[in-house]
Amino acid sequence: MSDEQFEFLMAIDEYKRKNTRPFPTWTEVLEVIKALGYRKVAEPQSLAQFGKDTEPGQTSPKPIEAVK
Q: CA 4, CA 10: separation in Å to the nearest integer?
């Protein structure tokens, strides 16, 4: 887990505790993200690069390896 991911998780956890919200809405999550200082500065990109079979910085799925 990167430092950035850890900081985000801690901010969400703090929000949930302070607001007694075990499941914040996506709007609330966006507010936490903004509170951390994130701002939209680039043009939108395809979400395909963020598929569950990709790693950070990788734009295509990982190849499937044969089981031996």
A: 10
